[in-house]
TrEMBL record, chains A, B:
Family of this protein: Belongs to the class-II pyridoxal-phosphate-dependent aminotransferase family. Histidinol-phosphate aminotransferase subfamily.
InterPro entries from the UniProt entry: Aminotrans_II_pyridoxalP_BS (IPR001917), Aminotransferase_I/II_large (IPR004839), HisP_aminotrans (IPR005861), HistidinolP_aminotransfase (IPR050106), PyrdxlP-dep_Trfase (IPR015424), PyrdxlP-dep_Trfase_major (IPR015421), PyrdxlP-dep_Trfase_small (IPR015422)
Keyword check for Acetylation: no
SUPFAM superfamilies: PLP-dependent transferases
Leading EC class: transferase
Protein species of origin: Amphritea balenae
Residue span(s) of domain Aminotransferase class I/classII large: 25-346
Protein name stated in the entry: Histidinol-phosphate aminotransferase
Enzyme Commission identifier(s): 2.6.1.9
Subunit text: Homodimer.
N6-(pyridoxal phosphate)lysine found at: K210
CDD domains per the UniProt record, alphabetical: AAT_like (cd00609)
UniProt keyword annotation of Membrane present: no
Gene encoding the protein: hisC
Amino acid sequence: MSKYWSPAISQLTPYVPGEQPKVDNLIKLNTNENPYPPSPRAEEAINNYPKERLRLYCDPDATLLKQALADHFQLQYDNIFVGNGSDEVLALAFMAFFRQDQPLLLPETTYSFYDVYCKLYDIEYRQIPLTNAFEIDLEQYNQANGGIIFANPNAPTGRLLELGKIERLLQNNTESLVIVDEAYIDFGGASAVELTRQYDNVLVIQTFSKSRSLAGLRIGYALGHKNLIEGLERVKNSFNSYPLDSLAIAGAVAALEDDEYFRETTGKIIDCREWTTNQLEALGFDVVPSATNFVFTCHRSLSGAELMSYLRSNNLLVRHFGKPGIENFLRITIGTYDEMQELINTLKQHPDISS
Amino acid sequence: MSKYWSPAISQLTPYVPGEQPKVDNLIKLNTNENPYPPSPRAEEAINNYPKERLRLYCDPDATLLKQALADHFQLQYDNIFVGNGSDEVLALAFMAFFRQDQPLLLPETTYSFYDVYCKLYDIEYRQIPLTNAFEIDLEQYNQANGGIIFANPNAPTGRLLELGKIERLLQNNTESLVIVDEAYIDFGGASAVELTRQYDNVLVIQTFSKSRSLAGLRIGYALGHKNLIEGLERVKNSFNSYPLDSLAIAGAVAALEDDEYFRETTGKIIDCREWTTNQLEALGFDVVPSATNFVFTCHRSLSGAELMSYLRSNNLLVRHFGKPGIENFLRITIGTYDEMQELINTLKQHPDISS
């Protein structure tokens, strides 16, 4: 606390990301990272980038990356916005669109950065509970609002909404913007990017951090009508001209081009998720159906906190949210088969888990 | 324009960075980049970084870089804040400190991003004119304010303020924060970082983009009392957890360690600045005394716009601000000796310039 702070700053409750441990012998299943390295083409692009050019500012428009994304999604260049991870894209989008008179609507259980942004910008918001099956019920979003945001698939639940339901929401909710945060869409969901061709009230946000294995390089993007992109550019260019560095741009372009590697690695994660789900169920866990690279699961008799600490003491790091309603759940990232085998074997050795 | 924008967005006037031309045959003296490549150690650190680790999130605290900066400046770890270029550090600092009831004070002619931030956050501000010799007169800042910011050396003028004057301001202005933006301090100025040890109302912001030749990697930092750093961290962690990617952290740490290279390259730029100044004066230019890697100069008979376009047609890119009061000035980055020789030779060939 300091008398020099802006008055609002002492009211903030910053987001706490999952732990990035400094030791190497842990199996890290706590931050939904991809267990596979980035595409060899991304590595090559970074290694081959002429480092002497780092003396120059990067392209403030990240033109090559925007064009690569436009080609990839068969959109126009002016339908694409890029930023320093999808977190920055979200942070700029909240500023650009959600500072309205009416409250923002969002799920009660979802990515916990959303309400942090609301506090940062003093945006009123209303949290809509999930169903008992952890589903987002979009019918409940038919009420006065200054914007709607949800993750699809949702986090930390992993559940996917059908595209038809999202389209119905867009048809009913024409006076405010709907943001669909698709950080996990590449692990089995149908993307709302198709809807951006037809509806100007939807913005889709995706990331290179999960399915492209580039969490350490910080690249996110938004797809939508060019007027929405223009709003984002206005805010971005009033905040930071060059949020993506030259190596990130080069790496991302190369990663995007390697479709074969992308399909192979996401395919392995999807298969392993199904295997892990079956194994967990056999050990007495309930597993929420997942379309992501993680599972959200609770044991029928053991508490989440106890399980997390048991796993931690066996060098397995998973994420536990102490929030009411989900305090018994663990969010477990899907790693390699070997890592998930280790998880399952460790759980089998717990005295109160019978296999 | 879109009905989905937050109402304030249509009022923004985004910052326009200097052109990053896509052609290679230009001598680029328009964005104050360093003409020398980054330290070979930074290149090596980036090349040797294990790219498979990019699948993991970077360290949200950039611990290695903060510790390296703390060691370098003989400060404590909690006196250091890092961000995605000094622009992001400034953007977060305006949010953290300058949203006050009283207006922010800043020079009328200075880094033009400052008033962009004010508009973004709806901060009232008052611009204080420079003296006729383009000096910041800190006596004029003794008035009610919600914060003070200036660049030292100032941009685009290049003029340096003595540390004693800044210290006097800190002694007189104890109720609000003073930010000293030292993007160019390494080209001959005395840094206010010394004052941060003694005064809790000063924050110093520096960058790796100029003197460390890493504009393309986006690394800025702030130095100050730990309570100020805590305010910045609260905002940063409510905005984006990981603004510095893993390669930027690795490259910056290595660049900082190479003090010999740093002294050699900044020394060459300082020498070349003095040579360029003498040459320009001999050609009928007035040159504002500079403590930066650029000179701010106007010709006694030719207009700034005309000179800029003459140089551009000869593949020399310099920066011209069309603003009243400085419309006849050019801001010319100091490049290599060869580049500056080319600039001088080109000017000598202008029909209205006699050597």
